[in-house]
Design brief:
The protein is of the alpha/beta class. It has a single domain, classed as Rossmann fold, CATH 3.40.50.1360. The protein has helices at residues 9-26, 41-52, 81-93, 113-123, 160-166, 185-188, 204-212, 245-253, and strands at 2-5, 31-34, 63-66, 68-71, 100-101, 129-132, 154-157, 179-182, 193-198, 230-234. The protein has a seven-stranded parallel sheet, sandwiched between helices. A three-stranded antiparallel sheet has the order 4-8-7. The model has no long low-confidence stretch (mean pLDDT 95).
Amino acid sequence: MEVVPLGSAGQIAAVAAGIVEAVVRRKPAAVLGLATGSTPLPTYRELLGRHKAALGPSYAAVTCFNLDEYVGLPVGHQQSYRATIARELTDGLGIGADRVHGPNPSSDDLPIAGECYEALIAAAGGIDVQVLGIGSDGHLAFNEPGSSLASRTRIKTLTAQTREDNARFFGSLDEVPTHVLTQGLGTILEARHLLLIATGETKADATAAAVEGPVSASCPASVLQLHPHVTVLLDPAAASSLDRLAHYREVYCAKPAWQGF
C-alpha cells in the first residue's frame, strides 16, 4: 500500500487523473471501475478538463463498471448511479452508454443481479484501476461495518447514517432508497489497481483505521491492506489521524521519478 499525503484536493485530483490516464494510454481498451459521491468529483472534473483541452488519451475503447446502484428508483432517475456517472464523467469523455455498466436493480433480475454483474466484469477481463472513496465509518462501496471481507456483489440494506449522508442528493430522507446492489469486498480486491481517495476531517479516523489498524470487518476498508497494488491519496485533513504520517511523506518525497504509481 502506498500512502500519499498531498496538500489539497486539487493536488489529489491531478495525481488521480494522471493515474487513470496512464492506464488508458498503456491500454486503450482499459476497464475502469468508477465510484460516485462527492469525493471523486474533483478527479472527474480534472479528467474532463484535460480531455476537453485534448491533453488526455482517447477513451473510445474504454469500458466502465460502477461500484453500486440503488434499488427501487425509477428507470432513468437522475440520482441513479448510472445517470450520475454519465452526467459527471463518461458522457464528457465520449464513452458510449453501452460501455458503462452497473448492477441491474430491476425487480425481475434482482435475485441473480450480483452473479450476473460478476460475470460481466469477468467477461471484460477484470478491472484495471478501481476508484474508491471511504465512508466516515470505514465502509467501502456500500459494504458497511460487519460485511464479510470475502463478500461478492449482492443486495445490501443501507444503515440510517448512510441514508442520512446521501439525503443531500435527494429531496428528502424519505426519497433515499433503503437497498442497494454493491460490489463486495472480495470483488473489489480483484481489480488490478485500487485507487482510494479521501478528503476532509470526517474521513480522518476511518482512513487511519483502514491504513494502520487491524484488518477487520469492523472497518471494511482495512481489507485494502491485503491487496498488492493500492494507492491512497489524502489531503491534510484526511491524513491528520495517521500515526506514521511523517514516514509516508518521507517515502513519497524520495519516490523515484521513473517509478510511477
